[in-house]
Design a protein that fits this description.
- The complex is a heterodimer of chains A (123) and B (107).
- By secondary structure, chain A is mainly beta.
- Chain A contains no helices and eleven strands.
- The model of chain A has no long low-confidence stretch (mean pLDDT 95).
- Chain B is mostly beta strands.
- Chain B is globular, with a radius of gyration of 13 Å.
- In chain B, 36% of the residues are buried.
- In chain B, strands 2, 4, 5, 6, 9, 10 and 11 form a seven-stranded mixed β-sheet that branches. Chain B has a four-stranded antiparallel β-sheet with strand order 1-3-8-7, with no helix packed on it.
- In chain B, 0% of the residues lie in helices and 50% in strands.
- Classes of the chains: A mainly beta (123), B mainly beta (107).
- The interface between A and B is medium-sized, with 21 and 22 residues.
Chain lengths: 123, 107
């Protein structure tokens, strides 16, 4: 059974950066894409981007281009999402989610999700 | 970007009811649509993929249909555990987009 365990809640100042981790277990990490989806308080779901660990190349939603960096460490089966230049509108729960197909990052849905990480941006 | 519009935004129903949630895409997405269930404070859970394929372990009272621009999620007989928020997601085109959600509440 695949499990994705994310790092804990963060409180950040506007203009700073946050890095959230997502550790996978119970499956083959390297070949399956991990995406990041966020959810602002009381709002819907927003896809940010993803990565296929074995290739190391990430794909980002245009809205977040230049502010988000998604990486993966195959040796620890962990994916990371770093968001910079934080503003209050970035306050949200950030989820990592696994794609159920090998080596595919586009045209996908998500079968396993992490528990979510609350990032609060406040001065 | 493809816009996904769900209706209704909120649905009140009773245990045992048959309910239907609609999701419309701003352009054709063939059958590349997934449905998720989300409970408060929890991550979304995959219910349906490719418009009508039931994810393993999901009760058979959940079903999906549609293609092109109009899709439905039907729950044949509501159970207490089904009261939650439901989201559709298109994966036909970059970027992946979600509907705004339908909150299913107890009448």
């Amino acid at each position: 059974q695949v499990q994705l365990v994310q790092s804990g809640a963060e409180v950040k100042k506007p203009g700073s950066s946050v890095k959230v981790s997502c550790k996978a277990s119970g499956g083959t990490f390297s070949s399956y894409a991990i995406s990041w989806v966020r959810q602002a308080p009381g709002q819907g779901l927003e896809w940010m981007g993803g990565i296929i660990p074995i290739f190391g190349t990430a794909n980002y939603a245009q809205k977040f281009q230049g502010r988000v960096t998604i990486t993966a460490d195959e040796s620890t089966s962990t994916a990371y999402m770093e968001l910079s230049s934080l503003r209050s509108e970035d306050t949200a729960v950030y989820y990592c989610a696994r794609v159920p197909f090998r080596q595919q990052l586009v045209g996908v849905y998500f079968d396993y999700w992490g528990q979510g990480t609350l990032v609060t941006v406040s001065s | 970007d493809i816009q996904m519009t769900q209706s209704p935004s909120t649905l009140s129903a009773s245990v045992g009811d048959r309910v239907t949630i609609t999701c419309r895409a701003s352009q054709s997405i063939s059958s590349w649509l997934a449905w998720y269930q989300q409970k408060p404070g929890k991550a979304p859970k995959l219910l349906i993929y490719k418009a009508s394929s039931l994810e393993s372990g999901v009760p058979s009272r959940f079903s999906g249909s549609g293609s092109g621009t109009e899709f439905t999620l039907t729950i044949s007989s509501l159970q207490p555990d089904d009261f939650a928020t439901y989201y559709c997601q298109q994966y036909n085109s970059y970027p992946i987009t979600f509907g705004q959600g339908t909150r299913l509440e107890i009448k």
